[in-house]
Amino acid sequence: MTVLTASRASLSDALQRVSTSNGTPYYDSLVQIADKVFGREPDEAFRGRRALVALTDGVDSTSLADFDEAREKLEKDGIISFFIQVNTRPFFEENLLGDCHSAIRFSQAQIRRYYKSFGPKSNLERTDDFCKLGDFERLAVSKTLYEIADAEMTQLARGSGGKVYAVADLTEARSAFKNVADEIGTKYSLGYYSSNEKHDGTYRKIRVELKGMPPGTVVRAREGYTAPVN
């Protein structure tokens, strides 16, 4: 059972019980948050202020779900997505090279994601066996996985009116969390009645513009919403 709380003691106890695994089910985690935390209608006090804040590098390795499933669920629930992006790539690649039996290995899902980035018509020779990848190709796979993660976090943040904060250390992460908290507390909620009255479950794009504001003013808002279904 998932329980939301403002108790620091309860949150601290929960963090102490967190265990590690041999991979990162990043997409599965986003899906679970959408289903278990945001799966019901929000109370009126929180309408328009429900946000996901993730400290992550965004690189998935073991999920059963994929990015599109996670994105669709978060978009449907109207969740604002903020990412505190930690750059783990130097550490990962430092331990990626050399003897394939002692190096950090890609999961088969990651290797498939790498080849998928070239498109179905690519003639690139493919393998699911990590030990058949040379050092140069291992670095190429890593580079692509981090680029995919960057693009996915940017897409989720921009589409929901959130933001990606790239941080180098814990001090910058603390500052980023504070900025997110301040932003969530000062957001404006706008509403309107759509001229399209169909309840067909389709995704509809919207655009928010401000007039009479100083040059350089930037608006971050949701890029669309999913229509309800009767």
Concise synopsis of the structure shown:
38% of the residues lie in helices and 10% in strands. The chain has 230 residues and is an alpha/beta fold. The strands form two sheets. A three-stranded parallel sheet has the order 1-2-3.
Task: Describe this structure as you would to a colleague.
- The protein has one domain (21-189): Rossmann fold, CATH 3.40.50.
- 38% of the residues lie in helices and 10% in strands.
- It is built from 7 helices and 5 strands.
- It has a 3-stranded parallel beta sheet. A two-stranded antiparallel sheet has the order 4-5.
- Strand 1, helix 3 and strand 2 form a beta-alpha-beta unit.
- The longest helix has 26 residues, at 135-160.
- The protein is globular and about 60 Å long.
- The two termini are 29 Å apart.
Which residues form runs of ≥5 with pLDDT under 50? none
What is the CATH domain class? Answer: Alpha Beta
- Report the count of strand segments: 5
Topology as H/E string?
A: HHEHEHHHEHEE
Approximately how much helix is present in the residues?
A: 25-40%
Number of helices: 7
User: Which class of secondary structure composition applies to the elements?
Assistant: alpha/beta
Largest sheet: 3 strands, parallel
Strand order of the largest sheet: 1-2-3
Structural topology:
Elements: H1 8-16, H2 26-37, E1 51-56, H3 67-76, E2 80-86, H4 89-94, H5 108-116, H6 135-160, E3 163-167, H7 170-185, E4 203-205, E5 224-226
Helix pairs in contact: 2-3, 3-6, 5-6
